[in-house]
Amino acid sequence: MKKYSIEKSDEEWKNQLSEEQYRVLRQKGTEAPHTGKYNLHFDDGAYRCAACDAKLFESEAKFKSNCGWPSFDQAIEGSIEYKKDATFGMIRTEILCANCGGHVGHVFDDGPTETGERFCVNSASIDFINEKE
Known about the structure:
By secondary structure, the protein is mostly beta strands. It has one domain: Peptide methionine sulfoxide reductase (Metal Binding Protein, Guanine Nucleotide Exchange Factor, Chain A, Beta Complex), CATH 2.170.150.20. It contains two helices and nine strands; from the N terminus they run H-H-E-E-E-E-E-E-E-E-E. A hairpin with a 5-residue loop joins strand 1 and strand 2.
């Protein structure tokens, strides 16, 4: 099993995170589409892991995908770990925070920008920081 910079027991994660954050980040859950607070959020700043505060995405990488979840066309280099996910009868690429191993979402190769990628992210797995203030 991979070692992460931040490792905590399940009990520690449960005490730190909300019930929904724990379900998504630690149990690989998915929030319902069009319900996350960052789905249609387009302020300038950065999106950080809600579990460990590691910076994952810059606001410039965010785009409106109409898929129901926050979408980005790239992650900050080295911030994301990629893992094959064969659950639910599909083959997908899971994205995890490279710092704590928290489940962030999945990445797909159907993005509309030059990167061709769509990082489909759960709002519960991220926090927004306005870095200009």
